[in-house]
Amino acid sequence: MMMLLLLLPAPRALVRWAALPQRLPLPLTVPRAGLRSPHTALFSRGAVSRSASGASSVATARRRGAADDGKLAGKFDSPTGQPRSVKEIPGVGMLSSLYWLIIRGYVSEYHELQIIHHKRFGSMWTSYTGREMFVCLADPDLIEQLMRQEGPYPVRVIMSAWDDYLMMRGHSKGLLTQTGADWKRMREVLNQRMLKPREVMQFADPLNAVVTELMGHVRARRGNGAATAVFPLPDVAQLLYRFAFEGVTTVLFETRMGSLEETVPKETQDFIRAIESMLSTTVHVMALPRWTRPLLPFWGRFVQGWDVIVNTATRLINVKLAEVKDCISRGQEVRGEYLTYLLASDRLSLPEIYSNTTDILLAGVDTTSNTLSWSLYHLAQMPALQEALCREVNAVVPGDAVPGIDEVARMPLLKAVIKETLRLYPVVFQNARCIVDDGVVLGGYSLPKGTNLSLCQYVLSMDGDVFPNPREFQPQRWLRGKDRAAWRHGSGGEGEEGAAAADDAATSEKTHPFAYIPFGFGLRGCVGRRIAELEMHLCLARFVKTFEMMPEPGAKKVLPKTRGVLVPSTPINLLLRERL
Fold first, then answer.
1. 456 is in an annotated binding site
2. pLDDT mean over 425-434
3. What local confidence, expressed as pLDDT, does residue 37 receive?
4. Architecture category of domain 180-428+518-578 in CATH
5. Strand-by-strand arrangement of the 574-578 sheet
6. pLDDT for 400 beyond 60
7. pLDDT-based confidence at 226, cuts 50/70/90?
8. Where in the chain is the domain with CATH 1.10.630.10?
9. Sheet harboring 440-442: ordered strands across?
10. Where is the sequence biased in composition, kind Basic and acidic residues (predicted)?
């Protein structure tokens, strides 16, 4: 009780605590099935319509292969036939949210806490992060209906702690925190270089150079052992974090940071540690009231991490700016893919370049490193799948050939492995939106302007009604047509078991498109998606082509944990043998 009182925002805590049982009893266990709220059917079959002005009513396409249930649109689970208040949505209050996060310890397992709430309340419930209430959505129909209504300036829920830091230091906002017309202007500039396939092609060679360095770094771990010797690769995620950092800085700053050198430069190491520190403390500073910041260590670490990130990024950008100015003064051609383009185009202010480059850096490192780590982890435990992938890669790029964009396009199993990894371990396990218009009616509830919504992507990934055998790693579920047929007939190396698994997991053609959105959707979708996918595909193809992977003997199962994003809870240790 004393711990809870410390975390409360005001003396009204005891009053709210007294009222808590009316909103949510605090069970020590939660049943794994049943316990759906009375409006569950409406959630998965309901409609979304504009309220207030009554601008429009949206009836969306049903799940692929499902019956058309449009006749249910507009029906509400209410005696009056009218939408109910947001206050009537079941869920957990502020104190109960703190109980689950702090006392029960779900601050590092927030993704699993959402599954508990989903099983208890159904596909729509409320919860709190700090003092902010969120309406949580765990139904692809609701998410689709919400996101297809987005206007020209979609608004993510503000990362209040990040916003507080930027205001405190007087820094400009970037894509992650900016809104409105300024956000759209910046987004249009960045889309030009980062989302158009023709533009992304130019990043393949620089990224392949980083992959080549990674292969050499891993090969050096073998030491003086025989070429066929088995050697350990401890803490794969840490190494791949350095790789991802080197890759994204190569793209953004057009320079190498030395992350894969035997002795990592101090500035680079400090930069990497600062990112890890800032992201890990984000969860705490978002969940705790502002008045606790001077009393607890999290805010100080958060600010310190941000300071190192911003100062280092600013220095690197200034170095490139000086190079561009020098070229212009000498009458020389200005060359460069990303940063040089931004500096020379004069479409963003220098503070906006600082902030957007930093934002993309933060978003890029975790996505690539964690996804690759989980991919290698599962491939090491599934030798038949690993060999099937190796055969696919060698068939497209035999010998010493290096894959590029065109070659990756002919590797369906490679892409399926990355896709399945992002399903099972979505780096961003929840997305968020804020209603900024006159409000919407969603699932039979009227959500007013200013309502925060959490789109629970991890919950959908673990829903057996959406993905059969949701906790099993089955890349074949994403194969289609002749690629699926090839797997069924043994290319997965598993004979009848492989065929059965393919039948069981063949969901790609009928899965609701909004059940799998690891990079978001629409105008607010991940601006670096194509580059991140390119980096992951190039790296995984070369890794499988170069090394045979095996699990560490006796190692326990590695589970994900929440650190702002979803990361391995314990080190992933592998054994490798070079393929000759």
1. no
2. 90
3. 37
4. Orthogonal Bundle (1.10)
5. 230-233, 574-578, 547-551
6. yes
7. confident
8. 180-428+518-578
9. 57-58, 48-50, 440-442, 445-447, 84-85
10. 65-74
